[in-house]
Amino acid sequence: MISELDLVRDYMSGEEVQADHLVDARFKLEAVILAEETPSVAPDKATLGLGLSLRRRRLLTRRVRLSAVAAAALAASSALILQLLPASTLPVAEAAQLRLIATNAAKQSVPVLGRNQWLETKQEESYSIDVTHSSSGPISGTEANVMATSTTWSDNYGDTCFSVAFGTLRFASAESAATWRSVGLSVTPTEQQPILGCDGGLSGANQSNGLALGVGGVVNVSKLPTNAPILAGELIAGTTGVPGIDQFGEGSKYPGFQRIMALLVGPVTGATPAFNAALYKALALFPGVHALGETTTHTGSIGLGFTAVAGYPGGSSMIVVDPNTGALLEAQSIVQESTADLLGVYFSAHEVVTGSAVTTRWLDPTESSSVVNTGSIPSGAHASIPNPSTAVVTAIGKPNVPYGRLGSVLNSPNTLEYLQYQLQERFGRVDNPYAYTASPRGGIMTFTFTGSRAQLAAFVAELRTSNLVASVTVNYPDK
Amino acid sequence: LGTVIEAAGNIWVMSESAEGPESDAKLIEASIDTPESFSLLFTRHAGGLHRYMVKRVGRAPAEDLVGDTFVTAFQSRDRYDLGIADARPWLFGIATNLARHYWRSEERRFERERVAAATVNKAEDVSETAISNAFFHDQAEPIAHALAQIDDLYLDVLLLVAGPGFSYDEVALALGIPVGTVRSRLSRGRQQLRELLGRSGQYLDAAPETERPSISTEGSP
C-alpha cells in the first residue's frame, strides 16, 4: 500500500553525492573561513610582505577552472602570463583551494620511522643542464636534458641513501651535442647505473648541507612551527633554523615558494598531518603565488597547479597537488646548485666541468613514501652507509632531578630513568642504557653509543633538549 | 599526538580530525574561536543537502546553492541555538530559503529576457511559483507533476518531511513556524496531493499515513 507521502519520499530520494566531491561548494565555504581566520592569526602582514587579498572579496566566487589543455598552454607561456598578473597574494577564492587542500592533508596519516627503519621515496625527474665553464674556459650552447629515476632512503638521524639511474642526454640541436662533446663531456653516464650511495649527517637540524632534491639529504621538520602564518614568515625570510631549508632558493624572487616546493618534494622526516596542512595554509599567505586550476602532470595525473616566479633564468616554478590528499603530484623548475656537481661528475669523462646550471624541469613522485627496513636498501648503497663509531656519552643530571620514582619508569616522567628509557626506545644503540651513578651535584649517566655521526648528534640533541641534564660530554675511546 | 596505529610493522599517526565524533552544536561553538571546525559540518551534511537541492532546483544550480547554504550558516553561526545538537534543521531551513530566493531570481531573469526579446505574451504566467512549478512539471515522476500544483506553503513542509525525514519539531525549527502550523500545513498538503493524484489516476491508496508515529494525521479525511 503506497501513500501519497511515500510517493513524495520516492521523489526526494536519490543517490547522495559524497561531500568530498562537492569541491566548488567546499571552495565557497573555505573562502569565508580563510577570510575570517587570516586577519586574526597573521602576526604582522607588513613583515610577511603581504598586501593580503581580503580587499578582494569581490573575487570570492571567482574560480579558476582550466582544462588540461588550457593549463598546459598556460604553463608553457607562464612567463608571459605572470607579467600580466599582479604580484600579490592569491585572491580569497583561489587561496581557498589551498585551504581545502590543507584540510584534506590534515586527514592523511604520515609515516613514523622506528629503529632501523627508513623512509623510501621514489621519483622520476627530468633535468636541464647547461655547462657554462669547462677546464679550458667559458663555453655556451651546451643545453641538454636528461631523465633520471631515483629512489631515496632516509632515516630519522639524517642518513640518506640513494639509487639513481640517468638516461642518455638529449640535446636541442646537433650543434649543442657537438659543443658538449668538444670539451670532452660524455653523452651517456660515465658511472655504472644505477648509481648507489649514502650520505650521513645531512640532517637539516644541525648540518649546513643544502637540500639536494631527488638524490640528496633528508630534512627533519619536527621542530618547525605548525602555525601557518608563523611558518609562512619563517619560510619567506629563511629563518626556520634548518640550514637545508633556509639556504634553499636564495636569490630567487620568491624563495618561500622554492622552500615550500623543496619540503613537498622531500625527503622529509618528522612531519605530522598538522605540519603538512600548515604548509598549504602558509602557501595561501605567500606573495607571488598564482593558482592555475586543473593541471596535468608529465605522468598524466590531474591535480591543482600553483606557480610563482622563480626569478631564475628558468622562469616560473610550479607544483601540482592532489586536492583530495595534499600529495605532491609534480614539481617543475627547481634550480639546484648541489646537483650541478653531481651531473658534471657523471657525464664528464675527466671532470672537465667547472661551472654549470642545472634545473629540475619536472619531478614526479611515482609512489607514496613508505617505511622499509635496512634490508630493503640495495647492498651497493648499504655498503656505503658511513661506518658507525662508538662514543661514550656522559650526561650529568640537574641537581633537583631525581633518578626514578616508585620503581617504575613508565610512571615517572621528568626523571633521569625515564629519560634513559625514552632514549633507549628511540635509538636502541646503547650498550648500557640504564647505567647510573648517584652524586650530590646531580646523577651521572654514562652511555656507550654506537652509530653514525648524525645518529650520535641526534642522541646528544635529545639529551640536551630534555631539560633534565646540566651537561653532556662526548668521548671517542677509539681515537 | 594523534592516535597511533600499528599495522604490518609500520606505525602511522592518524590526525586529530579522525578522532571521535562531536555534536554539530559543539562544532559550531568551537568554530567561533577556531573557524576551521566548521568544515566538518560540511563533510557531515553537504551530501544530504545536495540531494535535497537537486530535487528542489535541479542538478546544475544545486552545488552552488549548497555552497551558499554553508556560507550563510557560517556567517550566522554566532546566533545558532547551541542547545540543539543536530544542525540539520537549521541548515535545511537556510537551504529552503535559498531555493525560494533562487526561483525569485530566475523569475526576474526570465522577465528580463522576455522584455529584451520583445515577445511579450500577456497570457503567460511568469510568477516565481509558475517557474518553480514548471521545474517540477518537467520531472519524469507523476508525483512531481502533482507537486507542481501544490500551494507553496505546503510544499516546503511536505519536502522537508519526505526528504531529510524531519519530525514536526524539526520542520518547525527549519522554517521558523509553530509546530501546530507544521501539522496543519502537512495535513492540507497531503490532502491536496491525494486530490491531485486521484484526479490524474496516479494515486494508488487513499488510506491515511500511519507508519510515522511522530506525524499526526489530524485534519486528514
Oligomerization state:
heterodimer
What class do helices, strands and sheet pairing of chain B give? mainly alpha
Shape of chain B: globular
N-to-C span of chain B: 61 Å
Q: Report the biggest beta sheet of chain B as strand number plus sense, adding barrel if it closes.
A: 2 strands, antiparallel
Query: What's the overall average pLDDT of chain B, rounded?
Result: 78
Overall form of chain A: globular
Query: How many runs of DSSP E, i.e. beta strands of chain A?
Result: 19
Largest sheet of chain A: 12 strands, antiparallel
- Rg from alpha-carbon coordinates of chain B: 21 Å
User: Total helix count of chain A?
Assistant: 15
Number of beta strands of chain B: 2
The strands making up the biggest β-sheet of chain B line up spatially as 1-2
Task: Give helix % range of chain A.
Answer: 25-40%
Beta-sheet strand percentage of chain B?
Answer: under 5%
Compute the CA-based radius of gyration of chain A.
26 Å
**Low-confidence regions of chain A:** 39-88, 201-216
Largest interface, C-beta within 8 A: A-B, 47 and 60 residues
How many helices of chain B? The count is: 9
Mean pLDDT across all residues of chain A, rounded? 74
Fold and architecture overview:
The complex is a heterodimer of chains A (479) and B (221). Chain A is of the alpha+beta class and 479 residues long. Chain A has helices at residues 4-12, 23-41, 45-48, 68-76, 78-84, 92-105, 174-182, 228-237, 243-246, 255-265, 273-285, 337-347, 379-382, 416-426, 453-465, and strands spanning 110-112, 117-134, 137-138, 144-154, 160-166, 170-171, 195-199, 219-220, 268-269, 289-296, 302-312, 315-321, 328-335, 353-365, 370-373, 389-397, 436-437, 444-451, 469-475. In chain A, α2 (23-41) crosses α6, α8 crosses α10 and α8 crosses α11. The longest helix of chain B is centred in the middle third of the chain and has 30 residues, at 88-117. Chain B is mainly alpha-helical and 221 residues long. Residues 1-20 and 206-221 of chain B have low confidence and may be disordered. The interface between A and B is large, with 47 and 60 residues.
